[in-house]
Amino acid sequence: MSLKLSNAALASVGRDIAVPGYRRADLSAGIMHFGVGNFHRAHQAVYLDDLFARGRDHDWAIVGAGVRDADKAVRAALQQQDWLTTVVEQEGTHSKARIIGPHIDFVPPGDVAANLERLSRPEIRIVSMTITEGGYYISPATQEFDAAHPDIIADARAIDAPKTVFGLIVAGLARRRAAGVAPFTVMSCDNIPGNGHVCENAVAGLAELVDPELARWIRANVAFPNSMVDRITPATTNRERDALRDKFGLEDNWPVFCEEFRQWVLEDKFPAGRPRLEDVGVTFTANVAPYELMKIRILNGGHAAIAYPAALLDIHFVHQAMADSQVPAFLDQLTRREILSVVPAPPDTDLAAYQSLIARRFANPKIEDTIERLCFDGSNRQPKFILPTVLDRLKSGADVKGLALVSALWCRYCYGETESGRSVAPNDPSWGRLQTAAKLARANPSAFLEMKDIFGGAAQNAAYVAAFSGALSKLWGQGVRATLAEYLDGRL
Questions:
Q1: Whole-prediction pTM value?
Q2: What region does 421 belong to: left with phi over 0, alpha with psi -120 to 50, or beta?
Q3: Please, what are the domains in the chain?
Q4: How many other CB atoms are found less than 10 A from the CB of residue 164?
Q5: Residues ≥6 apart with Cβ < 8 Å to 91
Q6: pLDDT digits (tens, 9 = 90+) for 340-381
Q7: Interior CA angle at 287 toward 278 and 165, to 5°?
């Protein structure tokens, strides 16, 4: 007999499930978070749960928010269980389940009035977000805010009825400014280089279209701390729901399964105040950039490196890819040969040890992270996780054969068919455009590089064009296995 998750059920859950070590009735809101997905609940929410259990900072609970239709389903699922979430940490042969309770409300997505009312409240001192790499309205090639995007133009023309996260933030800040209420801090928790700067450019860039004076006030008065966040957190399916029920006797509408490892590095820039997260393992620093660069290029870049060859070889799970005869060797050689040389080590960090840690995390069989998830949204991820490393290598005159092969594998994947002939389902917001370019590139590899908004300066570099074209031609001519073997043997 299983138990349905709720506040009332907390006293009855099994001893093998940890429950919140605090009275949830004592919590009050201090944070409004856009994008209450799996990563947020496995990361930021877990750190706050740990902090609240120490009897600290109970006025920093989370109010959820969102602007997508998908957010409505998340809200409905969590509301049925009093905003509680079960987080299952998996490592080696064991799993640990805990119920976390830092969320105390969730503003209905689409209810502009309710969102703006909550953003206007003085007690909301941090507005945070996990809206994915593609949610910031920036050009993939230049990383600059795209003020001409139709969503941004629409919000600028009707800022009192915004449809985007940034429109709501701008409108909320404008209300606080008019009322003499101190602005909240805006904290990005997405995997983007300089995510605080990118977030500031999106908020102030939209504000510039609405009222240049408001934009100047935002840049002068609103803090946008940079951050590095890390925890491998797969999507939730019925497999996870069933596993939670069968192993722990608990029913959760939307549990989160994740690895045991987690890391959070934050720029200490919170003029409106912040919870004492350093007490529960968060690193505060004046310079996040080295940590961020290390993680994005080694971990996120590593995900891209294994995703596309594995997908083309019909490998389903990440840990299965790491047990393959070639995929982990490709990851190791690519990282050592081409990535580590353009990654400065953060303080007290051994990059070789970090590389080994990443490989062990990828190989964790308990996570069951999917290759399909890693392949998603390459049009936004390649320009952030792979191509900056390419450009740094090219500047120093170093070769980019492995990195070019990663992008060639992505192009081959975008063709829409694995090596066995299995169809690849659309897996990118720009899938139609990518597939068209990938089909042209089979005969003319340069056709894929003509997407200048993605490839930027790399597409203008003769060495890169040659490396990419050669790799793609080999993938089509002799297949993934033989091409990987040539790179591993130093013949590519």
A1: 0.91
A2: left
A3: 3-285 (3.40.50.720), 289-488 (1.10.1040.10)
A4: 20
A5: 259, 260, 261, 364, 366
A6: 999 999 999 999 999 999 999 999 999 989 999 999 999 999
A7: 80
